Amino acid sequence: MASAVLWTTASRADETPAGPAVPVVVQPGDSLWSIADRMVPERSPQQVVPEIRDLNGIDSPYIYAGQTLAVPSR
C-alpha cells in the first residue's frame, strides 16, 4: 500500500497545480469535456475532467443545463 501512495504522489509531482475553483453554469449542449476545454484551454481536458468530477462529487457522465459546477481556474 505504501508503494501505491508513493507512486501516486510522485506521478502528480510534475503536474501544474490547479488554481482556485470558479463556478460555471452548465449550458445546453455542454459536456464535462467541452467545459474543461473552454475554461482551462492551456491544459488537456483529459487532465481537467477528473478534477471537475472530484470537485463536484460527480460519479456519472451526466451533467444538466442550469447546474453550477466548480471548475479549476488553470
Q: Count the beta strands.
A: 2
Oligomer: single chain
- Which regions have little confidence, pLDDT < 50, spanning 5+ residues? 1-14
Largest beta-sheet characterization:
2 strands, antiparallel
Rounded to an integer in angstroms, the radius of gyration calculated over CA atoms is 14 Å
Mean of residue pLDDT values: 83
**Spatial order of strands in the largest sheet:** 1-2
Which percent band covers the strand fraction?
Answer: 5-15%
What is the H/E string? HEHHE
Helix count from the secondary structure assignment: 3
Percent range of helical residues: 40-55%
Shape verdict: globular
Structural class: alpha+beta
Give the N-to-C terminal Cα separation: 31 Å
Description:
- The chain has 74 residues and is of the alpha+beta class.
- It has 3 helices and 2 strands; from the N terminus they run αβααβ.
- It has helices at residues 2-12, 32-39, 45-56, and strands at residues 21-25, 68-72.
- A two-stranded antiparallel ribbon has the order 1-2.
- α2 (32-39) crosses α3 (45-56).
- The protein is globular and about 25 Å long.
- The N and C termini lie far apart (31 Å).
- Mean pLDDT is 83; it is low at 1-14.
